[in-house]
UniProtKB/TrEMBL annotation:
Bilayer topology annotation: Multi-pass membrane protein
Residues spanning the membrane: 27-47, 62-84
Annotated protein name in UniProt: Cytochrome c oxidase subunit 2
Family matches, as Pfam families: COX2, COX2_TM
Native source species: Micrastur gilvicollis (Lined forest-falcon)
Length: 230
């Protein structure tokens, strides 16, 4: 959960988000090294008197052509690796379907019979004490911890986007199209997100809440919800 004075990412709760945070730090270190070198050269040029040098111009051109290429390779290789990891969906334990509407989400657990519900934001006047304003919902998405989850995202009216920052997940919900992604929650907890695509007047009032629980708790929750729907 983010706070007001936070400058960095939320705590990673999935392997993909951990990789994204590490790549972010790696890219910042490369950018810091480049900025430090440029500032040093600028200060050197201002402090020293310009004069002729014995260094051949071709050697200088060779250096400032090869060095940027090496830097780009150092940034591209881990970036491509993470992109392939984010697109990889290999034998998920469960499939979840999220349908965006104006302005709520519908969830369907396709591996279970008659297990679906609508998720609305809880109004501020009805919000229980200690819960987060504009982020809490009446029905949370409950998933088993440390299990590969495939989520299929679509929309029933306009463009939406299903996003959970701490999981490293952001998938557009497009009417008439199915987009899919996957995630694994590495620890139990409650993770918050919001629709990340401007979808109308109440765009900021359709939050997303994912609750990660041990498998035994998830089985109890799913059986209880199925019996209530019957």
């Amino acid at each position: 959960m983010a706070n007001q004075s936070q400058f960095g990412f939320q705590d990673a709760t999935s392997p993909i988000m951990e990789e994204l945070v590490e790549f972010h730090d790696h890219a910042l270190m490369v950018a810091l090294a480049i900025c430090s070198l440029v500032l040093y050269l600028l200060a050197l040029m201002l402090a020293e008197k310009l004069s002729s040098t014995t260094v051949d111009a071709q050697e200088v051109e060779l250096i400032w052509t090869i060095l940027p290429a090496i830097v780009l390779i150092l940034l591209a290789l881990p970036s491509l690796q993470i992109l392939y990891m984010m697109d990889e969906i290999d034998e998920p334990d469960m499939t979840l379907k999220a349908i965006g509407h104006q302005w709520y989400w519908t969830y369907e657990y396709t591996d279970f019979k008659d297990l679906s519900f609508d998720s609305y934001m809880i109004p501020t006047a009805e919000l229980p004490l200690g819960h987060f304003r504009l982020l809490e919902v009446d029905h949370r998405v409950v998933v088993p911890m440390e299990s590969p989850i495939r989520i299929i995202v679509t929309a029933g009216d306009v463009l939406h986007s299903w996003a959970i920052p701490s999981l490293g997940v952001k998938t557009d919900a497009i009417p008439g199209r199915l987009n899919q992604t996957s995630f694994i929650t590495s620890r139990p907890g409650i993770f918050y997100g919001q629709c990340s695509e401007i979808c109308g007047a109440n765009h900021s009032y359709m939050p997303i809440v994912v609750e990660s629980t041990p498998l035994t708790h998830f089985e109890h929750w799913s059986s209880l919800l199925s019996s209530q729907s019957l």
